[in-house]
Amino acid sequence: MTLTNYWWLLIWMFAAGGIIAWALPKQPVMVMGKREYRWTMSSAVIFVLPYIIWAGYRKNIGDTETYRKTFRESASSLSQISQAVSDTAKDKGFTFLTVLIKSIIGNSDIIFFMLIAIVQMLCIVIVFRKYSTNFWLSMFLFVASTDYLSWMHNGMRQFLAVTIIFACTGLLLKKKYLPVILVILLAATIHGSALFMLLIIFLAQGKAWNKKTLLFIAGILLIITGVDQFTQLLQNVLTDTQYSDMTTNEIWTTDDGTSFIRVLVYSVPAVFAFLGIKYIEESGDPVVNLAANMSIVTAGLYVVSMFTSGIYIGRMPIYTSLYSYILLPWIFEHAFNERSKKLMYALTCGCYLVFFYYQMHATWGIL
User: Fold this and answer.
1) Of the four, 76, 220, 307, 321, which is 20 to 30 A from 233 by CA?
2) Per-residue pLDDT tens digits for 89-128
């Protein structure tokens, strides 16, 4: 079951996705008071099932072997949870979850990986299925951008926190901040970086390209022009936290930042949000406004990571970049006529396939 030819990720996407999209009926769903037609939940689950299985059977990708070793060496009974959590210096929630799962399923790391993948993927599917105008394209972008491999096969712990918060998109759109904040605090026990979203959920509210986002962009420019001062400020803020040595350790000092190509790719949705601002304003759609502002945050964070640390700062945009895969289908559907829309779909698929090959072959040396 080990995935050795990664082109199958995309072969399944086009073959099965095309059949499901064409053959199976859609159902009406209420989205922010509007009646929309979406894939059925059963169709969406069938479509993503292989990606869950592949994540469960993965080998030797990124942090996989570290997670495997940690799981196999962790406590294996409910009576040991308290001691295991107290012995953990940080992210105690993930330790609790690991021991809980192991006490139920035994020592099978494959089932452990698969259970985590189920939660991650279902959180994504629930949001994309309801709020994206094109579920297939959103999933294609998630896979072809290599986010699927980067996070479900690698940064599993942080991505679990990401997807749990992402599943609260409906609450965020309704501005029910208290439950969202509680979920963020829960997710922060799995990965401390989730606390970052306490700021972002307020920054991303409102119309696309509003004053808050413009101030955010101004802040990004200030950081770029004063990287050393920003690093010192970050060091002061992180003092007495689990990340207190982040800006002084070898990883940060030897990190040459996120590649320009990755920054460019992840900035494209924000550019489209700027070019299509007229259509976004006319729609008054809170979903696309939120997605646009999240895309601006994504682009800004990636630009900062290009000048600082791709390993640390470059890992933060995943909290917001998933919204870009909701934004792009909406822009294509509403800002282009029928002929140009088809062209944009073709260009997007083509460009992301090139990026997939570049990332897999040139950057990771896998294909």
Assistant:
1) 321
2) 888 999 999 999 999 999 999 999 999 999 999 999 999 9
Do 312 and 255 form a contact (C-beta atoms < 8 A)? yes
For the stretch 142-162, pLDDT in tens is 999 999 999 999 999 999 999
Q: For residue 268, is it left (φ>0), alpha (ψ between -120 and 50) or beta?
A: alpha
Contact 225, 310 (CB under 8 A): no
Determine the Cα–Cα distance for residues 198 and 183; give it in Å rounded to an integer.
10
Q: Each residue of 339-363: b (16+ CB within 10 Å) or e?
A: eeeeebbeebbeebeebbebbbeee
Q: How far apart are CA 273 and CA 293, in angstroms?
A: 8
Predicted TM-score of the model (pTM)? 0.92
CA 116 vs CA 58, 67, 86, 181: distances in Å: 13, 12, 23, 22
The pairing of beta strand 34-39 with beta strand 26-31: antiparallel
70's tokens: 């940690």
